[in-house]
Design goal:
Blueprint (H helix, E strand, L loop, with lengths): L1 E7 L20 E8 L2 E6 L2 E10 L3 E6 L2 E9 L4 E6 L2 E9 H9 L9 E4 L4 E6 L6 E2 L4 E7 L2 E6 L4 E6 L6 E2 L4 E5 L1
Antiparallel strand pairs: 1-2, 1-8, 2-3, 3-4, 4-5, 5-6, 6-7, 7-8, 9-16, 10-12, 10-15, 11-14, 12-13, 14-16
């Protein structure tokens, strides 16, 4: 099975601001990793490497690529994200299988069509209405805030469009699945 690792550049000292510690811009780079015999085939920017890796204690790997060896300490995160300490630099990776890689490539290319209902996800109380009928809204823009179990949930527009119906009233109790607004 082939995996892709999206490498966030920057390493240690990068404050996640899209710039490397040396001040240059950072780009995502795709590494393809495929199991090959007892090791792995890694393709980086079209360059192919044969890599051997041995698991050590505590989530570490001893990696041999060509004539170079290194120890990698790995800290798993959420949703396929991983931090890898190599030398004195931390590399942020996102691991994707083929399906997730294809889905990532289509992200943002799908758009909800037709009228879209905004329903209450659970019973609660409308605490704020952030729009009115006739407002032009963008995809992801907050429309209504519902409080449930002492937590506020901002309900966002599923598409760019116009608010054509608004049934939500501040202070009103709502049931789960109650229609609160429509965006067309």
């Amino acid at each position: 099975m082939k995996y892709h690792a999206i490498v966030r550049g920057g390493g240690a000292g990068s404050a996640g601001d899209g710039r490397s510690p040396r001040g240059g811009a950072v780009e995502d780079r795709v590494l393809e990793v495929t199991k090959a015999g007892d090791g792995y085939k890694v393709v980086i920017d079209g360059r192919e490497l044969d890599v051997d890796a041995v698991h050590l204690k505590g989530g570490s790997l001893s990696v041999l690529a060509g004539t170079r060896s290194a120890r990698c300490d790995i800290q798993p995160g959420k949703d396929g994200k991983v931090s890898v300490l190599l030398g004195d630099t931390v590399h942020e990776l996102e691991l994707l299988d083929e399906r997730r890689m294809r889905m990532r490539g289509t992200a943002g290319k799908f758009s909800a069509e037709g009228p879209q209902r905004i329903d209450s996800p659970m019973p609660g109380k409308v605490v704020r209405v952030l729009c009115k009928v006739g407002d032009e809204v963008t995809e992801g823009q907050g429309l209504i805030v519902v409080e449930a179990m002492k937590m506020e949930n901002e309900l966002k527009s599923p598409k760019a469009g116009k608010v054509t119906e608004l049934l939500a009233v501040e202070g009103a109790a709502v049931e789960s699945g109650a229609k609160l607004a429509v965006v067309t």
